[in-house]
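Sequence only, no structure available. Ideas?
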Amino acid sequence: MGDGLQEGDRVALLVPGSLTYLTAVQSLLARGVVPIPLDPRLTAYERERILGTLSPAVVVETEDALARLVGDVGLPRARPMHVTSGTTGTPKGVWSGLLAPEDARALVDEERDLWGFTATDVNLVLSPLYHSAPLRFASGTTLAGGRVVAPGAFDAPVMTEAIQRERPTTMFCVPAHLQRLFAHWDAHGWPDLSSFRLVAHAGAPCPPALKRRLIEVFPAGSTWEFYGSTEGQFTACRSEEWLERPGTVGRARPGRRLSVDEDDTIWCAVPSYARFEYFGDPVKTAAAWRDSSFTVGDVGRLDDDGYLYLEGRRHDLIITGGVNVYPLEVENALREHPGVTDIAVYAVPDDRWGQRVCAAVVGTATAADLDAFARERLAPPKRPKEYHRLDDLPRTLTGKVRRDQLGSG
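Reply:
I predicted one. Tokens follow.
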């Protein structure tokens, strides 16, 4: 295309999601060039921390530059490099490298076989396309010949109008989306939902009452939950299975195998095309793998029929509105304020977002000081919504902060 990009190069995308965005991602992957989808709201501080370790060949920050990446779409020869902070608070790229042709085809076929994508599908995008799940569902749809509808930032009236006008057959959502849609429909009237054949949710625990209502209002057999991470996918679960086993996130996806250690750590054995490494971090990569199985540090249990029940997400992870927020990353940013002696970030339950990010602070900085400081360094979901002054943080005898005594329970 005359842009100088070579196979294996990385391209950071810092623009809002759109149909052009989707096509650009697919065009790059077909060339063996790996897009790095990032939140365009990242501050300059966050961009520097992330991109400094990933060394992209190009950083795209305008719609014009994005449009110039659009070309032929074909079999994706890699997975997009999504970024995760993990428990270290340091952003890391999840890197699959270039796939062999048979692995590239197997990656596409696995998604198509599981979710049933066809040329007649219409996928409604509710979440930003720089997140892995909505991008995966949209890509699977278009690769099968289907159509994608991307109305923009989530807004319940706008999404309702899109459902009525476009008659989508599939959508991915997080529980916060469902809560807001149902509240809007209760107040203003319900759309015809009969066009949906697949409504998949993930990203945060779904309250049982919300789950039951989801099953009730959408067509029978259409609703699913899945459990996965930036690194890879573990399970898929029809809602009918959940009704039989409340609380489960399902059994291993086809071609994968789950196991749980004595300490309840969950491991997932995956095929070759689902392998990954943490870019530039062989130590972290080695810790994540054991033969063909990987872990992200979540804990849970398997019943006798192979159904998985999560008992905890990664240590201290906060999930707010379906977005993962890692306390250490927020703490590291705010510790740079001269008025902060000590800080601990934690979650409290929130009816709208699932969890709300809060911070306990030791030092002279005021809430207003820290709020202004956070706006320069952290994207909106990561900024604490409350600051509480303490004389000291509660700690264990070994020095670890007792977040359970700060309200995270």
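Residues 101-115 form the longest helix (15 residues).
Hope that gets you unstuck.
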